Every structure is written in structure tokens, then in C-alpha cells.
Amino acid sequence: MYTLDNPKYRAAREKAKALVETMTLEEKVIQLTQFMVTENTYNPEHVEEDGEMLAGRCGFLLAATGAELVNNYQKIAVEYTPKNIPIISGCDVIHGCCTTMPIPLAQSCTFEPDVVRECSAVAGKEAKMQGVHWTYAPMVDVARDARWGRNAEGYGEDPYLSSKMAEAAVHGFQDDGGIMACMKHYAAYGACEGGRDYYGCDLSDQTLFNTYLPPFKAGIDAGVATVMSSFNDINGVPCSGSRKMLREILRGKLGFDGFVISDYDSVLELINHGFAENEKDAVLKGYGAGVDVLMLGNLYNRYLPKLVAEGKIKEEQIDASCERVIAAKYMLGLMDDPFTDTSCLDGAFLTEEYREVARNAARRSFVLLENDGILPLVPSEWAGRKIGLTGPAADEGDTVLGCWASLKNPEKTVKIKEALERAYKDSKIVYAKGVSFRDDRPNADEAIDALKECDVIIAAMAEPEWESGEATSKTSIELARDQLDYLDRLFNLGKPVVLLICAGRPLIMADLKERAAALLYIWDPGTECGNAVCDVLTGDYNPSGRTAISFPRAAGQCPIYYNDKQTGRPAVGKKIFESKYRDCAIGPLYPFGYGKSYTTFDHTDGAISAKSIAQDGELTVSCKVKNTGERAGEDVVQLYVRDLVGSITRPVKELKGFKKIYLEPGEETEVSFTIKASDLAFWNADMKFVTEPGRFKCWIAHDSSDNSMEFDFEVTE
Ligand code: BGC
């Protein structure tokens, strides 16, 4: 825990402070600088000269991986820097390191923080063995717009779910994995207008605090070490130059005690924003606002000493930044032992245990959107029959790893085809690729011809990994035209088509939904892709994922999210003059929290313990949950709340709790949620965080669109 109420962190800060007192200004500024390890410097033979150049003049390295390489730099850092201070090596270990986990958006669809924690822990452990001390994850940007490609990297549209996942990831990376986490991108980076990456937004303080900051707060409370300041501006002020965001809010209101790093060039880009005159002014504004460490380059080295000499930056600020940085080095144990142990690395990556974590996370993250009963395809029932397999993701080991698979090993991916051939060894698997997103131009006619005799066709379609993640905003969020055309031909064969969609965002599924016999959204599942897919297809695992983000019917609906406002003219379908579209239904195709199972769950006997609670009170809502089908499975029971009248208009629903429970066929259990009056607090018209007295509704629900079990209560003065 990198918080001042943790005695260990306080002690680290004390030691760091003592060291800082012995340092010159130049030495201190070096600690706030990070250099990139380039292609050339990857060569260990060059390390001596490049290392001397780099390590003597920076406190951090970016993208240095490989224990031996980092150790070489480390050796130089501790020998050449005047105070023998080791470097921290930082890297984007976003969803796995050598073993690739499902993308974070998929991890969030598990509705299981423990799964996120496990994935982050494995990522941390592997990264640490690679000499990485610090990851730029988790990304906790609430994202409500499928056009924005970076949805893939975060936990979806909901502040509550994202908060739970943020907390879990911080514990996973730091407490279990042994590296530092960096929460990003602070803040409201996902609120970019039009879903356009790097763009800004005009945002009320209420929306900032009620929607975008809760996951950051949760990560800070979990003890996150570092925070990254974002590229975007809010209300005209770039976050990487915003005193309000970095000082008043992050340190003041959210209580962050670690250090802030800029995003890649985000301080330099203050010039492009039209917020700074030149490099020196950018440093004055960025560092002055509270960006302790510059992600890349020499700007701090070059200008901070001058700005101190001119009295524009106080040396005490630099002392404080430096103290935070060196404290982190103490916390990581680097000050005592800067080197990564290389004696036991053989066979330490991509182990069976890590693969099992990846497989479990992947199958739990898949969302079964449609199923007319064709799934599961139980192998014994399909013995001797023909199963067709087609599509660009069917025999693919790379794209299925997703947009930010750090030290990926595509050759170690379990592909769908090989896993399917194993799982259905008594069936005849007919494979034909049919369509591709690469240049290999498979023959579609031949594929259709080969598949037409099959009893079922599994079509694994994909948005390639380079079309999600950073700088991948899109106005059309459908599958590529040639994949859609090919699917059309497949559907026309009249055979049941089980559609698997591998993607980093919710794509438009409106037409496909009507024609597929089953639709399983597998996101970008990672190293264990094939095994996880087969676990679900065979029925060995009953799908339990739920959408962590709404699926729009059309891109024109974006941004779309369940916790929106009712408006003065709600769309109830009675009048023309309602808040809706003329050419498209108002709601999403699949709402937040949605997902099917191979069994069914009934919620009955809803009960509420009190109709009225005081400001310090609490109540319980409960119901019975029964597995009414024939297979064991997991239900995600969700609690939503609505504050009916507020000093500002309130969301139509807000997730306030969820529980994933396993039930055998016919088994019934009781599920209950406690609602404290304080859980209903929000930043109100006066920017006070209060629970306003008044009437509320709440629902125990299958998903965010389910109103069937509703309760009323009130909170008194
Ligand atoms: C991204 C960050 C990332 C950084 C370092 C930036 O372009 O916005 O998310 O951590 O690069 O790779």
C-alpha cells in the first residue's frame, strides 16, 4: 500500500527524504526523468555505452524487458549515478505478460473481481521475472462509447463495476504480483467527444466525480503506487497541466500519496493544445501542476533547474517529487537489491498454472448473447457428425491475444482449430478459412463448398487486434465488409451457424443476431483461446459472462450506456415528441449486465427489510435464486438503485452490487444485498457528497434492463 497511513510506506518516505537532502538539484531532476529503451539498446552488447548514457541520466526506463538486459542497465545505474540510485523499469503489462490474459474489458465481463486479481497477479509475477518493476495498468477509464478503441483496455461503462475491478487489479499487480501499478488515464480520457481518441470534453464537476473518478478513488484506496496524467483536456484545461485535477482533486480530495507520471509526451503536447508557449512553458505548466515524472525525454532535465533558478518552480516541490520516487524504489526493494534473480527463470513463464488462470478467465469472460438451443455441442452427441469450422480467427494465434499483449508469444497460443480437433476427436472437423483480415486471400467459394455438407458451422469472425486499443477510433463499428458478405453466404447454406466474435469492442450485431443459431462473444481471449472456447462449446463450462458495456444497435447511438438520464420527455413510446431516434430503437441491442447461460435462473420471493431508513441507516433486499434448468451454472445477480428526485437529475439506474453464484440444477438459494444510506451518496448540485433524503427504487435484476423485481424505499432527513 503506497499510502501514508501504511507505516512501511511512511518509513520508505522518511528514508527517501533523508537521501534527497543529500542530493543536488540536478541529481534530483534526473530521478524525475524516464528514457526509452530503443531497438539498438536491446542488444546487450551495446548496453555498456547506451546504458551509461541512459542510466546515468534517468530514474526510470520505459519498455526495458528481459531480466538480463534490465540488470545490465541497473548495474550501470547504481555504478554511475552519484548516489547509486537504481532505476525503475516500466512497461505496459496490460493484460498479461508472457501468458496473455483476456483483454481487461473481457475480464470485467466475468463480474468477478477475483478473476481480475488473478490475471493481474500472474501478469505481475511474469513481468517481475522479466525485470519489470512497474506496469502502466490498470486503465480504469469509464467508457461509454464503442467508437473509442480503448474500451478494450478498461473495465467498461459502469463506475461501480470498474471500481471493483480497479481495486482488484491494484491488489493483483502490487500485493500478489510484486510490481507497482499505475492507474490511468487520469482523468475522463474515455469521455472524449465523438469517441475520438485524445480528444477532450466539457464535463460538469458532478459528472466527473459521480462517473469518472470513482474507479480512481477505489484504486487509490487500494494503495496504488502511481497515477498517469492523461492526454485529454477537460473544460479546456489539459489534464497534464491541470492544478485542479492533479493537486486539488487527486491529492486533495482523492487522497493520493504516490507519484504522478505524464502520459507519453502529454506534457510536451501542452504546446499543441495551445496551452503552453514552448517547451519551457510546457514544463512549467505540467510539472507545476503536479506531474512528478516525465514519461519520456529530456524536458525536465533541461528546464527544471532553470525554472528553479528563476524562482518559478520551488525546489521543495522537486524534493517532494523526488522523495515519492525514491520511496517507491525502497518499497520495491530495489535500494537494497536492485537486481532481478536470473537463476530460476527457465520454465518460469507460461507455466501450466498461469495458463490455467488465463483459460479460466477467458471462458468466464465469454458472453453468450444468443442461443436457440444448438449449444452446447456435447462431443458424445456429435460423434460421427460433421462440424464445420471457418473464419479468420479459427486458426489464429495472434489477433486473439488482443491489443496490448505485452511480451506475447503467438506461437504458444492454443488456437481454436487445434483445440476443437482435440475436443471433438470422434467428429469430422471440416476446416476452411473462407475469409481473412490479412493478405492471404483464402478461397471463399471453396470454403462454402466444403462447409455445405456440415451439420453445424462454427464461424470465428474477428476485428483484428490492431483495430482496437490506442488510436483506433472508428465511425463504423461493424465486422469488416468481406467478413459480413462471407457470413451472408454461410447463413444462406441453411445450416445452423454458431458465431464466435473475437473483438476488442462491442460491434454492431443487429443483423447477425437474427441469423446466427448461437452468438458467443469471446472478445480477445488470450493465450488459452482455443481451450476456453471449447470448454464453452462442449458444455464443460456453462457460460457466465455478462456485458460490461452496452452493445449499440447502430454506431449512431453512441455514446450509449444504461445509467443515462430520463429527460423531460422519456421514450415510453407514446408520443412523437419523445427523447428518441426516428430510425432506431432507443435502447441498446444488448444492455449492460446481459448474458445467457445453458440453464435458466428464476428470481422469486423478493423482500425488503425496511421501507424507510435514516441517513445512518441500512436495509437489506433479498430474493430466492433458483436454477430452473438442467445444467449447473452461475447467475450474476445484480442490484440497481434509482434516486427518484435529486438536486440534479439522477441516472435512471445505478449498479450498487452484484453476486455471482453457482447453482446445481434445481438448487435454490437466497441472495441478499445490504444498501446503506451512505451508498446512495453522490456529488450534488452544491458539489457536496451527500445522500439526499427522498424516495428511491431498487431492483434485484438479471441485467440493467430487467425491472421485474422492484422495491420502493425512502431515506429520511
Ligand atoms: C498510452 C499509455 C501508455 C503509454 C506508454 C501512451 O501512448 O496512452 O496508455 O501507457 O503510451 O506506452
Output mean pLDDT: 96
* Span of the ends, CA to CA: 37 Å
Tally the helices. Answer: 20
User: What percentage of the residues does DSSP assign to strands (E)?
Assistant: 15-25%
Tell me about the largest β-sheet: 6 strands, mixed
Q: Going across the biggest sheet, name each strand in turn.
A: 10-15-14-13-11-12
Label the overall shape: globular
Low-pLDDT segments, ≥5 res: none
Alpha-beta classification? alpha/beta
Oligomer: single chain
Please compute the radius of gyration using only Cα atoms.
Answer: 26 Å
Number of strands: 25
Q: Ligands in the structure?
A: beta-D-glucopyranose
What helical percentage do the residues reach?
25-40%
